[in-house]
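The records we work with from here on pair a chain with its fold. These numbers are not coordinates but entries in a learned vocabulary of local backbone shapes. To see the layout at work, look at the sequence and tokens printed below.
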Amino acid sequence: MAKVIIFGVLDTAELAHYYLENDSEHTVAAFTVNREYIQDETFHGLPVVAFEDIENIFSPTEYSFFAPMTGRNMNRNRESVYHAAKAKGYQFISYISSHATIFDKSVVGENCFILEDNTIQPFTTIGNNVIMWSGNHIGHHSTIRDHVFFTSHVVMSGHCVIEPYCFFGVNSTIRDYTHIAQGTLVGMASAITKETEEWGIYIGNPAKKVPGKKSYEAY
């Protein structure tokens, strides 16, 4: 059991608080955001502390950290907080829903937020700082690297490699044996049938790359 500090005070942080309190062995002790974004001193009855001061109030030797943020800036905002909290000395938890299907939780890295009805098949590994919203199928013998976001009802077939900073829209599909390059943004209901290019945006079925625009310019 860990006493946990959650980064954020918006919807994702509120959901993280709910899941941790109702479906984990962890206890939430406080919330934290950058000082300029603090509007209230409490959230859900717990203190909201400036991130700049957090380690002086909640020692990294006694508290763990959780930053289940959205995929903005192609997951790089979440990555920045992840590295900043690690630099302060915090260890990270991950949350895996008790209603997810996974046979070996040790294949999941730290600061992952995996919600209900995800199916994660054997021989697939999941890196650090990965978000999987509800209802995804994550196929076998695959590798998902760090700082990735799956929304809901994404189907990733077997033997895929997902590089860092990727984002998958609702109901998107990835064909088996496909390499998804760093920073790929897949639009909702799009079907990836072949290797992607770094920082590309792909939409349609079959998906085609949007010309002249990078994913970090769109999201």
